[in-house]
Amino acid sequence: MKPPRIVPFTFAAGGAAALMLAACGARPQDDAAKSAAPSTFSAPSAPAANALCSTFARDCAFYACLEAAHPCGSDGYALGYGAKYCARFMGQTKLSERGNAWRNATMACLQSALVPIADLAGAVSCRTVTDSAFASHARCYTQPGHSICALPMDDIWTILRTLDADALSLRAANQIRSVLSTCLDPADGVAAR
Protein backbone atom coordinates (compact mmCIF):
# COMPACT_ATOMS: atom_id res chain seq x y z
CA MET A 1 0.00 0.00 0.00
CA LYS A 2 1.40 3.38 -0.96
CA PRO A 3 1.19 6.28 1.46
CA PRO A 4 -1.82 8.45 0.73
CA ARG A 5 -1.11 11.52 -1.39
CA ILE A 6 -0.85 14.60 0.76
CA VAL A 7 -1.66 17.97 -0.72
CA PRO A 8 1.34 20.25 -0.16
CA PHE A 9 1.15 22.24 3.06
CA THR A 10 3.71 24.09 5.12
CA PHE A 11 5.99 21.69 6.98
CA ALA A 12 3.94 22.15 10.14
CA ALA A 13 0.62 21.34 8.49
CA GLY A 14 2.14 18.59 6.33
CA GLY A 15 3.69 16.92 9.35
CA ALA A 16 0.40 17.17 11.17
CA ALA A 17 -1.40 15.64 8.19
CA ALA A 18 1.01 12.71 8.15
CA LEU A 19 0.45 12.16 11.86
CA MET A 20 -3.30 12.29 11.31
CA LEU A 21 -3.03 9.73 8.51
CA ALA A 22 -1.03 7.47 10.80
CA ALA A 23 -3.69 7.83 13.49
CA CYS A 24 -6.26 6.68 10.96
CA GLY A 25 -4.25 3.60 10.07
CA ALA A 26 -2.35 4.78 6.97
CA ARG A 27 0.91 2.84 6.95
CA PRO A 28 3.75 3.13 4.43
CA GLN A 29 5.10 -0.18 3.11
CA ASP A 30 8.79 0.16 3.92
CA ASP A 31 9.47 -1.92 7.03
CA ALA A 32 13.28 -1.87 6.78
CA ALA A 33 13.63 0.17 9.96
CA LYS A 34 11.50 -2.33 11.87
CA SER A 35 13.62 -5.29 10.85
CA ALA A 36 16.77 -3.44 11.90
CA ALA A 37 15.91 -3.88 15.57
CA PRO A 38 14.49 -6.89 17.39
CA SER A 39 10.88 -6.64 18.50
CA THR A 40 11.64 -7.53 22.11
CA PHE A 41 14.50 -6.60 24.37
CA SER A 42 16.13 -8.06 27.42
CA ALA A 43 17.92 -5.78 29.79
CA PRO A 44 21.68 -5.95 29.42
CA SER A 45 23.59 -6.70 32.58
CA ALA A 46 22.02 -4.64 35.31
CA PRO A 47 23.89 -1.57 36.50
CA ALA A 48 25.35 -1.58 39.98
CA ALA A 49 22.66 -1.33 42.65
CA ASN A 50 23.74 2.20 43.54
CA ALA A 51 24.06 3.45 39.95
CA LEU A 52 21.84 6.36 39.03
CA CYS A 53 20.04 6.05 35.72
CA SER A 54 20.81 9.71 35.01
CA THR A 55 24.37 8.56 34.24
CA PHE A 56 22.96 6.61 31.27
CA ALA A 57 20.85 9.47 29.89
CA ARG A 58 21.22 10.12 26.15
CA ASP A 59 21.89 6.43 25.56
CA CYS A 60 19.54 3.50 25.02
CA ALA A 61 21.16 1.84 28.08
CA PHE A 62 19.03 4.25 30.12
CA TYR A 63 16.04 1.94 29.61
CA ALA A 64 17.93 -1.10 30.93
CA CYS A 65 18.78 0.96 34.00
CA LEU A 66 15.13 2.00 34.38
CA GLU A 67 14.09 -1.66 34.11
CA ALA A 68 16.71 -2.73 36.68
CA ALA A 69 15.53 -0.01 39.07
CA HIS A 70 11.81 -0.72 38.61
CA PRO A 71 11.29 -4.12 36.92
CA CYS A 72 8.19 -4.39 34.74
CA GLY A 73 9.33 -7.09 32.30
CA SER A 74 9.38 -7.22 28.52
CA ASP A 75 5.86 -5.77 28.27
CA GLY A 76 6.64 -2.84 30.56
CA TYR A 77 7.49 0.62 29.28
CA ALA A 78 11.28 0.42 29.73
CA LEU A 79 11.87 -2.69 27.63
CA GLY A 80 8.65 -3.05 25.64
CA TYR A 81 8.51 0.54 24.41
CA GLY A 82 11.41 2.78 25.46
CA ALA A 83 14.32 0.46 24.66
CA LYS A 84 12.65 -0.90 21.54
CA TYR A 85 12.02 2.49 19.97
CA CYS A 86 15.30 3.96 21.18
CA ALA A 87 17.20 1.19 19.37
CA ARG A 88 15.09 1.54 16.24
CA PHE A 89 15.47 5.29 16.03
CA MET A 90 19.19 5.23 16.83
CA GLY A 91 19.62 2.65 14.05
CA GLN A 92 17.54 4.66 11.59
CA THR A 93 19.68 5.76 8.63
CA LYS A 94 17.05 7.56 6.53
CA LEU A 95 16.52 10.66 8.68
CA SER A 96 17.83 13.98 7.44
CA GLU A 97 20.21 16.09 9.52
CA ARG A 98 17.16 17.87 10.99
CA GLY A 99 15.51 14.52 11.60
CA ASN A 100 18.57 13.25 13.46
CA ALA A 101 18.66 16.43 15.54
CA TRP A 102 14.96 15.92 16.37
CA ARG A 103 15.60 12.27 17.30
CA ASN A 104 18.52 13.15 19.59
CA ALA A 105 16.70 16.03 21.29
CA THR A 106 13.57 13.91 21.70
CA MET A 107 15.52 11.01 23.23
CA ALA A 108 17.21 13.37 25.70
CA CYS A 109 13.85 14.96 26.61
CA LEU A 110 12.04 11.62 27.06
CA GLN A 111 14.82 10.21 29.23
CA SER A 112 15.18 13.43 31.27
CA ALA A 113 11.48 13.23 32.06
CA LEU A 114 11.99 9.71 33.47
CA VAL A 115 15.18 10.34 35.46
CA PRO A 116 13.28 11.36 38.64
CA ILE A 117 11.28 8.10 38.50
CA ALA A 118 14.27 5.97 37.48
CA ASP A 119 16.50 7.29 40.25
CA LEU A 120 13.77 7.09 42.90
CA ALA A 121 14.61 4.64 45.66
CA GLY A 122 11.92 2.18 46.59
CA ALA A 123 9.10 0.55 44.71
CA VAL A 124 7.47 2.38 41.83
CA SER A 125 4.55 0.74 40.07
CA CYS A 126 4.77 -0.19 36.41
CA ARG A 127 1.74 1.98 35.80
CA THR A 128 3.52 4.99 37.32
CA VAL A 129 6.53 4.40 35.07
CA THR A 130 4.32 4.10 31.98
CA ASP A 131 2.09 7.05 32.87
CA SER A 132 5.11 9.27 33.60
CA ALA A 133 6.76 8.29 30.34
CA PHE A 134 3.72 8.84 28.15
CA ALA A 135 2.94 12.15 29.86
CA SER A 136 6.17 13.55 28.39
CA HIS A 137 5.85 12.23 24.83
CA ALA A 138 3.86 14.99 23.09
CA ARG A 139 5.85 17.73 24.85
CA CYS A 140 9.15 16.10 23.86
CA TYR A 141 8.05 15.53 20.24
CA THR A 142 7.15 19.20 19.85
CA GLN A 143 9.76 20.95 21.98
CA PRO A 144 10.91 24.37 20.79
CA GLY A 145 13.84 24.15 18.39
CA HIS A 146 13.35 20.43 17.74
CA SER A 147 9.69 19.92 16.89
CA ILE A 148 8.27 17.18 14.73
CA CYS A 149 6.02 19.96 13.35
CA ALA A 150 8.98 21.47 11.50
CA LEU A 151 10.42 18.29 9.98
CA PRO A 152 10.37 17.61 6.25
CA MET A 153 7.74 15.13 5.05
CA ASP A 154 10.40 12.50 4.24
CA ASP A 155 11.39 12.50 7.92
CA ILE A 156 7.76 12.26 9.04
CA TRP A 157 7.24 9.17 6.87
CA THR A 158 10.52 7.65 8.11
CA ILE A 159 9.39 8.17 11.69
CA LEU A 160 6.00 6.59 10.97
CA ARG A 161 7.63 3.59 9.26
CA THR A 162 9.72 2.99 12.37
CA LEU A 163 6.64 2.47 14.55
CA ASP A 164 4.62 -0.65 15.30
CA ALA A 165 0.90 -0.91 15.98
CA ASP A 166 1.60 -0.38 19.71
CA ALA A 167 2.39 3.22 18.83
CA LEU A 168 -1.21 3.61 17.61
CA SER A 169 -2.91 2.62 20.87
CA LEU A 170 -5.63 4.71 22.49
CA ARG A 171 -2.98 6.32 24.70
CA ALA A 172 -0.92 7.11 21.59
CA ALA A 173 -3.99 8.50 19.82
CA ASN A 174 -4.32 11.05 22.63
CA GLN A 175 -0.67 11.99 22.14
CA ILE A 176 -1.17 12.32 18.39
CA ARG A 177 -4.12 14.63 19.07
CA SER A 178 -1.91 16.75 21.35
CA VAL A 179 0.91 16.85 18.78
CA LEU A 180 -1.55 17.78 16.01
CA SER A 181 -2.99 20.53 18.17
CA THR A 182 0.49 21.94 18.70
CA CYS A 183 1.44 21.65 15.04
CA LEU A 184 -1.79 23.21 13.80
CA ASP A 185 -1.90 26.06 16.31
CA PRO A 186 -0.21 29.01 14.59
CA ALA A 187 1.32 30.27 17.84
CA ASP A 188 2.53 26.86 19.07
CA GLY A 189 3.54 25.57 15.66
CA VAL A 190 5.73 28.59 15.01
CA ALA A 191 7.17 28.46 18.52
CA ALA A 192 7.90 24.75 18.16
CA ARG A 193 10.11 25.22 15.10
TrEMBL record:
<keyword id="KW-1015">Disulfide bond</keyword>
<feature type="signal peptide">
    <location>
        <begin position="1"/>
        <end position="28"/>
    </location>
</feature>
<protein>
    <recommendedName>
        <fullName>Lipoprotein</fullName>
    </recommendedName>
</protein>
<dbReference type="InterPro" id="IPR004978">
    <property type="entry name" value="Stanniocalcin"/>
</dbReference>
<keyword id="KW-0732">Signal</keyword>
<keyword id="KW-0372">Hormone</keyword>
